[in-house]
Design a protein that fits this description.
258 residues, alpha/beta, Rossmann fold, 7-stranded parallel beta sheet, globular
């Protein structure tokens, strides 16, 4: 699964799951363009990725702003020559009961999690087509499959991301562009730090996870290499959970004693 000579854009690639994706792609030899907003985090991520022997550079891009996305694409092409792989990872969540959301909060979540994903895909398409093909990895969620009462807008956008993935795969297959989605399970990141401070909730997750642990960002390195490489050329339009088996399980049961 060598990606030497390939260029990957990873949105939100300066931390958490995004950095896990970027690390896997870099391990396989791809050069990395990080599109993110936190400059300090991005610089630290670039340093880590460069230690793997590849070229990496961060660009200040807010995926809620189409103009910034377009400029990020211009700057990335200027630095790297083009784009072969996109990981559309950047996303936000605001946890509230449905009746308590403000209009601006709803608009922001949709703008980042859905419109931003589409705008990034649209931005890289001409470069991928020109280069003879490409790989797009969108990032959904367990809420692409399950409802989540305190995150209904987030859940709606993540369900829509999977439908967008299938539709783009259908449309761009003729251009040798494969589009797939990854659905992360419960992962140890900054975004779940507060949740992981609740012992009862942590235990509920573990009780339903066959792997017996929460995920780590580096758990996304392998799927990034596979979906970013030619080994996945005949796989497109699918959503793959990376969740330790959470979505496969109603609840864990003890084996029979005899």
């Amino acid at each position: 699964m060598s990606l030497k000579g390939k260029v990957a854009v990873v949105t939100g690639g300066n931390g958490g799951i995004g950095l896990g994706f970027a690390t896997g792609l870099a391990q396989a030899g791809a050069d990395i363009a990080i599109w993110a907003r936190n400059i300090e985090k991005s610089e630290a991520a670039v340093k880590k990725l460069k230690s793997l022997g590849i070229n990496a550079k961060a660009f200040n891009v807010d995926v809620a702003d189409k103009n910034q996305i377009n400029q990020g694409m211009i700057d990335t092409e200027k630095e790297f020559g083009g784009v072969d792989i996109l990981v559309a990872n950047a996303g936000i969540n605001i946890r509230k009961a449905p009746e308590n959301y403000l209009p601006d909060e709803v608009d922001r979540i949709i703008k980042v999690n859905l419109t931003g994903v589409f705008d990034c895909c649209q931005a890289v398409y001409p470069s991928m087509k020109k280069r003879g093909g490409g790989k797009i990895i969108t990032v959904g969620s367990l809420t692409s499959v399950f409802g989540f009462g305190i995150a209904p807008i987030y859940s709606a956008t993540k369900g829509a991301v999977v439908q967008l993935t299938m539709s783009l795969a259908n449309s761009w297959g003729r251009d040798n562009i494969q589009v797939n989605s990854v659905l992360p399970g419960w992962i140890k990141t900054e975004l779940t730090e507060q949740t992981r401070s609740l012992p009862d909730f942590v235990n509920k997750v573990l009780d339903r996870t066959p792997a017996g642990r929460w995920g780590e960002p580096i758990d996304f390195a392998g799927i990034a290499k596979f979906l970013g490489s030619s080994d996945s050329d005949f796989i497109t339009g699918v959503a793959i959970p990376v969740d330790g088996g959470f979505t496969s399980t109603l609840f864990l049961v003890d084996p029979p004693s005899n």
